[in-house]
Amino acid sequence: MAPSPAAHKAYHDLHSSAAPAVFSDTLLASLVSQHSADLSGGEPVRPAPTNGGADPRVRPEPAPLAPAGPKHASGRKRSSTACDKCRQKKIKCDNVKPRCGSCARNGIRDCCYSSETTGPDFWLLEMAYNGLASKLDGIMEELRGRGARAAPPKKRRTHASPGPGIPLWDASLTSLFAWPYLQEQLGWDPRHAARHVGRVVSACEEPSACWPAPGSVEEQLATAAAVEADFQQHFGSHLNAFLINSHTKVPFLDIAELVELLEVFTLIRNADPRVTVLRLLAEFHALRSTERVGACYSRALVAAGREDSRGLQKAYRNLCETMPMLLMVCAIGVISVPVSLDNIGTYENSLEERASMGAHKTPKAAAGPAAGQNRFALSQMYIAHAAYVTAVFPKSLRPSTIPSVKYHVLLSQYHHDTLNPSLAHEEIIIASTGLVLFIEKTRMRAGLAAGLADVPRDDALVNRLFWTCLKLECELRVEMCPHVPLSAITQITPPSSFFKIPDPFQEGDHTSESIRIANKYDDQNTWYYFLTEIALRKVENNMLDEVYRARLDRFLWDCPRFAKYHVWKLTIKYLNHLNSIVASLTPAIRKFVLMETDPAQIYASIKRKASRRKKAVCEEDQIPQILDDFLVDEDLLHHAQSEAVMFIKTRILSSKMILMRPLVYMCLHGQILFEEITEAAAEVLAQAQVSQPDLSFNEFPDEMSHSSSTTCTGLASERSIYLLAAMLNFLDNDDEDLEEGEVQQSYLENLSKTSGLEDFSDLVELAESNDGLEESYQTDYDMARKRVLKWFVAGLITIPKLTIPKLSLYRHPGSWYYIRNLVLGVILLFLMYRRTRDYVVNLMKESKAYDQTTNNTQSVEVLSLIFKKEDVQTLLEHALLVLDYWKEERKDCAVYGEYLRQCLSCL
């Protein structure tokens, strides 16, 4: 039965009432059509076309639905069949046409019928529409009320859980290409800036040169056999290299567990030398559910005369369940090397260094002829074998499990060592996503089971993995955003609000032999340095959120309010945070971090060594080169964990460069007058002349006594880091037992230890709030502007002197970041020099025109002491030498070299 026109009208009345965002119009239309079809027994009611030729996709202003109730539903309508005259007289009509009988008898000629419609009763159909509309009204009102009542739950102040609106950053090297002043100096068309960004991004995505994988089946089998032989003979040496050269930088694995796995594998191999990785895994995955260990394990215990225990059984199962991860540990152990600051004098380029065996003395018979002479090839064979094991035994690397997360974190670290940032980002995203799924599954099970914790909070391994994944992903985010996606790890509540150092090894958890060996590798200073890294990472993340937001309608640094107020407040805020972290270091390490050297002499030394290597001069060793050393006491570096100290030094420098970059932009584009820079430079130079000389390292003998006070120093430093974390609102009240007075006193003491140019404590006040201690600032922006500009000028002078130039030629997981920051710093100094030169030229012209020689001459002299052409040229030449060393392996270095050569030609 077809619906009547009134039904059409009722449908349109309902359809014109647009629902809120929760329900789409399509959904409402489908509900109404389906309901009408069910009632009418025919086709669903279709909406009438829109009037007036308007776009049917544009809906009119929504109107509220008419309330359904007895008033509208009580009257039962029937089709009208009587003529109009009979209806007026309220008499019966015989419905004869054209004139009914009553009108014919009474002589009425205008007998007409106002409605020609005849049909059945449709009162029930309209009642159905009204009922449906009433129900939809109730649902919509409930949803509106729920949306108004819903409020986001209060979360603790941690960058790991910023919510779905986490901003994208644009702080990478390519962000400079949009600067108008840079485009002007390099002669770029502003319309083609995106092309230069695309060049760099494409070069970064291109993997570095890889060792060719074996093609035929015979070659693959030979490679697998070579890896098996090398793993059996050199597993211990590769693990030792990993723990010394890589674990100290990212300490997330359990050393005692790794040593225990080595112990069990050695036990099995001593009993049966024919056991290989594949045979071991094949036996393990063939075990029944009632069997705990395999036959090779039982035979090994009998042959060694050892008693079985739950700890050994657990170690055996861990060995089989984490075999791909162990192969990855060996790959990193092969490719990683100890600190070497003389690579430029030994190798022609990074490919030659990457292929050298160095301390790895693997015989050809063990790893094949190719890998026996090539460190990188051997590591690639381990990578391929790990992928093969995963393909043959899928259960050995199940997704969203802790072994899988460890594997992908290690693979990301391997790609960092081989300078493949795009592959490293891909792997850390997989690791972060898997860890998030693991944490959420644990929380879901905890919510369903009584008596379990609501979060794996006490699991030290999950805690370490979380902060490791977050740190590694954010580091890549800084350099690759906004061109890469984010994982969910930035949007969940962390297991703990700050990184926690694991407890000492327990006898019941591991074998006594593995604990004895692990204690030799486990160093309290390593954890202390990693705590410092996490603190720096969190401060920098907040800084990037506020200062380097991407994809805004207008570039933030061009906003007048940002240039007049916000930049000074944010600079003081985050500079105080960075200085507090520096002040929390031990005195000797703090002095090393702040120590300045003469970079020009070190650049000249590196250049001499490169020239001598090319000319193959044999008397190189006979010429004393005092400056070729690190310029720091070797005992100091040894006792203070030299690698970690160097990386903390460079890490703090990179954070300060991020803080200085908006000020450089504002100087280049006229938002900061150069007269202000000149005034600040004069005050800095005057203050430098009367400042006291720095203290020497010998004034801290107790701190550097490795035999007596290393543990005490480490514990004291941990406490200072935790105090700092509490001050920065990184900790919850229940995470650490810290008194509010202790936190505030530590914060103010740390600020008082900084130098005068970086001490803004008089502009900061701590106030108690619901979220903890918050900072408030004085409103004297003129004073803040002058003080910040003095710090900025001092930073332009000192940052080149705080670098470690030879570290740029050493392979480590942060090599790519170091190279990018080097290029970034060189370009910034070049632009500041060019801007200074333009200002000086205009100043000299004004002197001749207005006879202001005295004042202008003083300004020129001050600026010439800070921005020197020779210094900028030396820095450019050094950066080009570094880029030439890496460009064969890392293709984007060749692109950076082109830009720096353009800068050099503009000098």
UniProtKB/TrEMBL annotation:
Pfam families: Zn_clus. The keyword Lipoprotein does not apply. One of its GO terms (molecular function) is zinc ion binding. The keyword NAD does not apply. Residues 35-81 are annotated as: Disordered. PROSITE patterns: ZN2_CY6_FUNGAL_1, ZN2_CY6_FUNGAL_2. Residues 82-113 form the Zn(2)-C6 fungal-type domain. The chain crosses the membrane at residues 816-833. Keywords: Membrane, Transmembrane, Transmembrane helix. This is Zn(2)-C6 fungal-type domain-containing protein.
